[in-house]
Amino acid sequence: MLRSIIASAVVMSMAISYASASDIRRVVTGLDANDRSMAVSDRQLSLKEIQPDLSLGYLWVTDTFPVSPSKADTRDKVSGISPPENGTQFGVVEFQPLDPANPTPPIWHRTRTVDYVVVISGEVDLVLDDSAVHLKAGDTVVQQATNHAWVNRGKDICRLLFVLMDAKP
Q1: How far lies 53's CA from each of 28, 40, 131, 168, in Å?
Q2: Which candidate, 114, 123, 115, places its Cα nearest to that of 151?
Q3: C-alpha 26: how far from its chain's center?
C-alpha cells in the first residue's frame, strides 16, 4: 500500500507541477462491467482559498483501512484538517509568498496523523517548535504528528502535494 501511495504521489506531482490553482486535473481509475481498467473520472478541480495566502484542495479521501475502491467521488468525506478515523486525505495546498508589509501569522497545527508531503514547486519553510527546515521543489517530508507550520518566504507560490494518514495516538 505504501508503495502505491508513493507512486501515486510521484505521478500526481509530475502531472501538476506547472498547473495553476484552478486547473488541478484528477483522474480516477476503476473497472468496467467486463473487469477492464478504465478512467471513471477525469476532471478539473479547483483549490479553495482558506485565507488570502493559502489555498487547499482535497483530491481523494478514504475512511477505512484496508481501502476499498470507490466508484463515487470521495472528497465529501472530508471532516476537517485530519482524515476520518482509519482513513486518508490526499490533496494539494498552495502558499502564496509572505507579504513583508502585511505578514499573515503561520497556522500552527498538530494532527494525529502521519503525513507524506512532496514540494511540487516553489520553496517553503517547515517551522517546528525550535527550528525551521527550508524545503524546495523535489524535497519530501514525513511529518509524524508534530506541531508545525508552513511559511513561504520565497518569491513564488509554493505547491505541496500531501497524503495524511490517520495514526494511533
Answers
A1: 29, 33, 22, 31
A2: 123
A3: 13
pLDDT in tens, 45-83: 999 998 889 999 999 999 988 988 888 888 877 777 788
C-alpha cell at 114: 502521519
Tell me how far apart the 2 most distant CA atoms of the chain are, in Å: 60
Domain that holds residue 128: 2-166
161 in Cβ contact with 103 (< 8 Å): no
- Convert 124-144 into a string of H (helix), E (strand) and C (coil): EEEECCCCEEEEECCCEEEEE
CATH number of the domain bearing residue 72: 2.60.120.10
Number of domains forming the structure of the chain: 1
What strands lie across the sheet with 123-127, from one edge to the other?
132-136, 123-127, 149-151
On whether the CB atoms of residues 81 and 67 are closer than 8 A, the answer is: no
Which contacts of 31-40 are long-range, i.e. CB under 8 A and separated by 24 or more positions?
31/69, 40/71
